[in-house]
Amino acid sequence: MKNLVKRNAFAPLVTNPFLPSVDAFFDDFGSRDLIDWTNQSLATLGSNLPSVNLKETDKKIEIELAAPGLKKQDFKVEIDNNMLSISSEKEEEKEETRKKDNYYKKEFNYQSFRRSFSLPDYADENKITADYKDGILHVAIDKKEGAQQRIAKTIAIK
After folding, report:
1. Residue 115 contacts residue 50 (beta carbons within 8 Å)
2. Residue 87 is part of a domain; what is its CATH number?
3. Which runs of E-coded beta strand occur in the chain?
């Protein structure tokens, strides 16, 4: 059985199967957006970086990392030289066998990510807490006592 193919009446009868026709190229070219940045997430771009919310109050710096499906033991939170790193590595293997149906299936999955954040000088590396609840990792970093937060300035352009 042959597949249905749209043909142009002016196309040559003999075509090279390894080279697409000009019409097919323009049909495909016109029907796709070259760059569509609307409604894109990292997951659709082939990345598995979890989304992050950053919040700063007078007393704390807070990080919320969305990572549903993980467990608290899947995370590793480290700090080194004012650099906070949150990472995870998870391997899964599933195996299913039914001798009656002569059925065998084995699947495996591997996920990993690392997010790093440069902390300001006024962050207290000794007062960091982490909690994982409802698919969100909450990390709170206390600010040092008496530390002055630098105020952002707008520079006028002449």
Report:
1. yes
2. 2.60.40.790
3. 52-56, 60-66, 75-80, 83-98, 103-118, 123-133, 136-143
Which region, left, alpha or beta, applies to residue 29 given φ > 0 means left and ψ of -120 to 50 means alpha? alpha
50, 79 contact by CB (below 8 A): no
Provide, for the chain, the percentages of residues in helix, strand and coil under a 3-state DSSP scheme, each rounded to the nearest 5.
Answer: 10, 45, 50
Model-level pTM?
0.59
Residue 120 and residue 149 in contact, taking contact as beta carbons nearer than 8 Å: yes
Q: Which domain holds residue 129?
A: 52-143
Does 72 map to a domain?
yes
- In a domain? residue 36: no
**In a 3-state reduction of DSSP, which class is residue 76?**
strand
Structural domain count, the chain? 1
- Cα radius of gyration (the chain): 27
Name the DSSP class of 11.
S
Q: Which of 86, 68, 81, 88 is nearest to 140 (CA)?
A: 86
pLDDT digits (tens, 9 = 90+) for 80-134: 999 999 999 888 888 888 888 888 888 888 888 999 999 999 999 999 999 999 9
Asked, for residue 112, whether it belongs to a domain, the answer is yes
SS3 of 96, please?
A: strand
